[in-house]
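pinned: reference chain
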Amino acid sequence: MTKQNSAARTRSVTLPRAALLLSGACLLAFAGCTDEVDSAAADAIAAPQGVVQMAQAETAPAEAPATQAVTPAAEAPAASGSADVEALMEEGPLPDVIIGDANAPVTIIEYASMTCSHCADFHANAYPAIKQQYIDTGKAKLILREFPFDPRALAAFMLARCTADDARRTAMIDVLFDQQGEWARAENASAALLNIAKLAGMSQDEFTTCLNDKELQEKIVETQQRGQAEFGVEATPTFFVNGDKYSGSLSPEQMAAVIESHL
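pinned: its structure tokens
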């Protein structure tokens, strides 16, 4: 990936800690939304398979549809830097949710913002194939860490953390990315987020309680600040693959080449 292309596929505005914490008033406004669920929005959100996975997460995850195998790029993109793997894996403000085998030889850490279009692009166009070819086969594991750019992203991350378990959190993250256009730029984002939360099994009261959780809000902001201060994260998505740093929405072929270089 050229430097120009990489810049075009990242979002690189970081809000200071105080600005994100001051967004608490915005989150309170989110929590005060109506108990009514807009039927049109609910129909739009209910369609993706991720919602079905949320409903089934307590029993067994839904079987993923077959994805075409990825042929790794002839050459992996150059890393823009690196970080100490042990430092990256140290316990942070919030527990990591590991997707895949915890003992997989390749560790992918992604810093993302829920309102980042390039993050959504990666999860729509690269992640399914990478998951099937490398994560589901025990070759790699993925850890997604919160790096919110704005109050809506912060609220979405909070709601994902307030789900019943890790499986539901992962499924909700998938739906939030898949339906990003339905809530991230909506005039009434609170109603759209409430629709998703209810489909994940969250009540109106639980929705309100979650967005009023100051401790959770602090920990998500601390996760963002740690990524920036300790590991130099300045844009989303930013990936660390066994410590090597890549910024931008890598294609399936590029990510496959990076993973293969560590196997």
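why pinned: Residues 103 and 138 are 8 Å apart (CA to CA). The beta strands are 81-82, 98-99, 106-112, 140-146, 238-241, 244-247.
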